[in-house]
Amino acid sequence: MQIVSALFVENFELRQAPGPSTRIDLKGAMFSMAAPSSVPVTIDPHLVALISCAPDEAGSGVFEVIFRKGRAEADEQIARNVSPFTVEPGKFTYRLVRGELEFTEYGQIFAHCRVDHGSWHLVPFTLLPPV
Questions:
Q1: In whole angstroms, what is the distance from residue 73 CA to residue 10 CA?
Q2: Helix boundaries (H) for the chain
């Protein structure tokens, strides 16, 4: 299985389309946001990941997300989420992670995402000073 895409979003909705087919409406895709107040502050952005399962794969796996202060696996971990999932072989699924991220300073973090023990897929997120 592989991660097709992962983004921070404000909201998303699933809807049926002819076929049968499913549409995913992503709203407010973002890579940064202004802090709601001065640091220290905790925010809880939604990370949505789309995962593809090949027809010859088993259809079960574990989605892991580690929020880190940098790109390297050795960088400080600030939150972690692990969730098992199943998907019909040959289909797609999504995983939604709502991280509670504590920021003591403005700057960038990275969501390190993977399925099982596969390659990491990094998604940047920057917290900006309040407006």
A1: 27
A2: none
Query: What is the CATH architecture of 2-128?
Result: Sandwich (2.60)
The residues with which 9 forms a beta bridge, in sequence order, are 46
Task: For residue 129, give the DSSP letter.
Answer: P
For residues 75, 102, 80, 48, the Cα torsion angle rounded to the nearest 10 degrees is -110
Could you state, in order of their start, the residue ranges of all structural domains in the chain? 2-128
pTM of the model: 0.93
Q: Looking at the DSSP assignment, which residues form a beta bridge with residue 66?
A: 80, 112
Q: Which residues, 6 or more positions from 2, have their beta carbon under 8 angstroms from its beta carbon?
A: 51, 52, 115, 118
Residue 115 reports pLDDT greater than 90: yes
55 half-sphere exposure, CB direction, 13 A CA radius:
0
Tokens of 123: 């998604």
